Amino acid sequence: MPCQSNEELESILLEAKQYTHNGKVADYIPALSKANPDDLSVAIYHHDGTCYSAGCIHEKITLQSISKVITLALALIESGEEYVFSKVGYEPTGDPFNSIVKLEMSNPSKPLNPMINAGALAVTHMIKGNSVDERFQKIIEFVKLLSGNSDIGYSAEVAESEFETSHLNRALCFFMKQHGIINEDVEELLDLYTKQCSIEVNCLDLARIGIVFALDGKEPVTNKQLMPAHVARICKTFMVTCGMYNASGEFAVRVGIPAKSGVSGGILGAVPSRFGIGISGPALDDKGNSVAGLKLLEILAKKYDLSMF
Description:
Blueprint: E1 4-5, H1 7-17, E2 41-46, E3 51-54, E4 61-62, H2 67-79, H3 81-87, H4 101-105, H5 117-126, H6 132-147, H7 156-164, H8 167-178, H9 186-197, E5 200-201, H10 203-214, H11 229-242, H12 248-254, E6 259-261, E7 266-271, E8 275-280, H13 291-304
Parallel strand pairs: 1-3
Antiparallel strand pairs: 2-3, 2-8, 4-5, 6-7, 7-8
Helix pairs in contact: 1-13, 2-3, 2-5, 2-11, 5-8, 6-9, 7-9, 8-9
């Protein structure tokens, strides 16, 4: 079913777009610095399969940290809760997403949650397979399944750019390897992780992934169970508590839905039992979230009473 342009949504997007000048693109990853900071688009995918949009929703962005919630779901399906949470914790953090501080202070030295970089690297380490390519294919096929888009690929340019500049992530990996959280070659894990983050999607893909989470793992049109309901529930819980980096508490107050952001400017939203939301807005605030995307969600939440609280 095609995504229909919507005048009311266009009006909300124009209001939010004024805030793009308050942010800047993620220039610490060279390939992401090419994005247009003035871009903003949104797609909303409803439980009955209807879709409404505003902006250039077919413009591709990379998943970046949005991939963390998808690999968490895959790891839970493959290995189960007990194993996954023996390696990563459940707790939110007020520290930046790439901080090493809590790893050094915690005992045992495992990441606080799967949404910070250390936790996401530990989760990606759990994805089973005999090679980086085999494991990556498993991740990208899962993204295709959730989005209903078999044409999804990844940006080799972004993956290489991230791999070459992932010095802090290397430090996190070596620290976790020292403490037995991971046990594979660090360069291979980073190769897999940067490819995972470089999977390319558009707003509609994000919205369709969002509705699957919103419907506890079910595809809206066919009603097919794409992931177990308890896995979707766990992922949505982390999206609420940790999904918007160390701005998650404020986001819960102002918007109040499960959501996950990425430094490409993407936001994946899941309004329980109602719809999925996909947003692209590359200009970021100082926490790494799309500045205009956050404003757009805040307007939508007030107008349509989206908060689950």
